[in-house]
Design goal:
With 464 residues, the chain is of the alpha/beta class.
């Protein structure tokens, strides 16, 4: 009997997916689930993690991001054909994606012996231990542009990846890689369909070039489970008369109503500490307030989560060791505690504390909306409504869209997660709300209006 119980326990443990069960699209098509529970994607762009960090540094990075509330990290598998690990192990033979360099018999515990793919295996395992999913880009767009990834190599490389990683629970595929979906379309179709055919149980999207959306080209592709936007790094002034420009919420709103219904996320907005437009020397830099704005705008417009990025961290920059891209100016392990990174947890905390799968964007809640920075984004779920003002300007909300004869309102700070009571009142008509402080960019506040009779759980925040 003891032996039988031990065997049953071992089988149960083997079936347990642990902290990162495979993700699935929710029944309504707008959100993600993990083991039947709502999953809020709080992502970070750690693009060059595999090539620039050793194992101790990787552990420090993953532990820090987990502590800050991140549960997804976006990484490149191949940035260039010459991609190597920090231990100088090349990913490919002669830069050919059709010939991954695998060294059977190498000891994966000895840095001088394991190969590139052994290292990726280890990173996946450590990410899983920290409750983090790796959203992996098989090949950056330049490999297709320069023809290393082509009609011959794409299916071979796709099969290698799918067969090696299809049993990993904490995996998401990001086909593409900062590239125009109209370029080398057949290559991306081949790579995506090959991986999906062999590995049907992991979600896949397409990471597009700046200020574009995967839905433009691939919305109906069978391998594309959810859409990804790269809203990009340009300011309103740099994008001229563009109807979207910094308005990343517009991409989300457009995808929300597309058929067939698919979830959508902004997978690369402006990075904290990167110059406006990336390539303009001496330009102003995006700060924590901008990172918060992109995040709250996207989620309230209907995104199932958000991906944050910090300039120095996304390239794992070390001064004097690597050439700086986009005017990187500090070590990654210092920049990892940038204010915006520590403030993303408050976004996740609020939405996880309320029913997520039934939430829907509702711009009609705001009776006097503005444009650009004066725009107030709003959504509602069963018994609650949420509105976000980036400038802290007063605005008027239409009541009666949620349940309850009486509602209670509070201000929630996206900077520190504190709550400020507003009051209780009848759930009808309109009401003017005036956030704390002066009206100015970065004095952002979230209005939380709830059915007074509802018993929602407390948000994990300190009292104001």
């Amino acid at each position: 009997m003891t032996l039988l119980l031990g065997l049953l326990a071992a089988l149960t443990a083997a079936a347990d997916p642990g902290p990162t069960p495979p993700l699935a699209v929710s029944a309504n098509g707008h959100y993600l689930e993990a083991k039947g529970e709502p999953f809020f994607w709080m992502g970070d762009t750690g693009w060059l993690l595999l090539s620039r960090l050793d194992r101790d540094e990787t552990e420090r990075y993953l532990a820090t991001r987990a502590r800050q509330g991140f549960n997804v990290v976006q990484v490149m598998i191949l940035h260039t054909p010459q991609m190597t690990s920090r231990y100088d192990a090349p990913a490919l033979i002669d830069g050919d994606p059709g010939r991954p360099r695998v060294t059977p018999g190498a000891d994966p515990q000895r840095p001088g012996e394991y190969d590139y793919w052994d290292h990726l295996d280890w990173v996946l395992s450590r990410a899983e231990a920290h409750g983090i999913y790796l959203a992996m880009v098989p090949a950056w767009g330049t490999l297709a542009k320069d023809k290393q990834l082509n009609a011959r190599t794409a299916p071979v490389y796709g099969r290698f990846l799918a067969e090696r990683y299809r049993n990993r629970p904490n995996l998401i595929w990001l086909n593409g890689g900062d590239t125009g979906s109209e370029n080398n379309t057949l290559v991306w179709e081949s790579l995506g369909s090959t991986i999906k055919r062999i590995d049907p149980d992991h979600l896949m999207t397409f990471h597009p070039i700046g200020r574009t959306d995967s839905s433009w080209q691939f919305h109906e592709a069978p391998w594309l489970d959810f859409n990804m936007v790269q809203s990009g790094h340009r300011s309103y002034a740099q994008d001229g008369p563009s109807v979207r420009s910094e308005d990343n919420w517009r991409y989300i709103a457009e995808d929300w109503i597309k058929l067939p219904t698919k979830p959508v996320i902004d997978g690369e907005p402006s990075y904290e500490n990167v110059p406006h437009g990336l390539h303009e020397p001496g330009a102003p830099r995006w700060g924590a307030a901008d990172a918060r704005r992109y995040a709250w705008w996207a989620v309230l417009a209907g995104a199932f989560g958000h991906t944050y990025g910090e300039n120095n961290v996304m390239q794992m920059f070390v001064p004097g060791k690597y050439e700086a891209s986009f005017e990187a100016d500090q070590r990654w392990d210092r920049a990892i505690d940038a204010p915006g990174a520590n403030q993303m947890r408050h976004l996740r905390a609020l939405f996880e504390s309320r029913p997520m799968l039934e939430r829907m964007p509702d711009p009609s809640l705001i009776a006097d909306n503005g444009v650009r920075y004066e725009r107030v984004l709003a959504s509602r779920g069963p018994g609650y409504a949420i509105a976000y003002s980036y400038t802290g300007r007063p605005f008027t909300m239409r009541l009666g869209a949620i349940s309850g004869r009486q509602v209670q309102a509070r201000w929630y700070s996206p900077r520190d997660g504190s709550l400020t009571p507003v009051g209780s009142f009848a759930n009808r008509g309109t009401r003017r709300f005036d956030p704390p402080g002066d009206t100015r960019p970065g004095n952002d506040w979230v209005l939380l209006v709830e059915d007074a009779a509802a018993r929602f759980p407390a948000i994990a925040v300190r009292a104001r």
